[in-house]
Amino acid sequence: MDEQWSATAGKHDLNGTVAFYADDAVLLPPNGPIAKDPKSIRENWAPMVAPNAAISWKVFKTEASKSGDIGYVYGSYQLSIQDPKTPVNDTGKFLEIWKKQADGKWKCIVDTFNSDLPLPVVPEVKKK
Description:
By secondary structure, this protein is an alpha+beta fold. It has 3 helices and 5 strands. It has one domain (about 1-115): Nuclear Transport Factor 2, Chain: A, CATH 3.10.450. A hairpin with a 6-residue loop joins strand 3 and strand 4 (about 90-100). It is globular and about 60 Å long.
């Protein structure tokens, strides 16, 4: 499922990308508030799947519960956004929790990612 999700996002398909989330899913993006509803999840994804963006990810590990109704995956991602004002060239890692829905389909219920890039150095404030 995750390979399909990455391929869908790589094709700049916003509707298809957000369709991998359960209705009650949450997205925990870096440097921003929790996206707790489909509208805010969509707003977070829009710039990452825009025509001037390139995104992909690869799973390193997948594991499911013994009951077979919940699982997780983690791996790494690459993201670039070609924007003259705020270009992005990022690599990082992600963690997703998936749950089998009543209809038997797997959907992501919790999604988070963060950059491998170092935080920018904040200059010291000199005291008077």
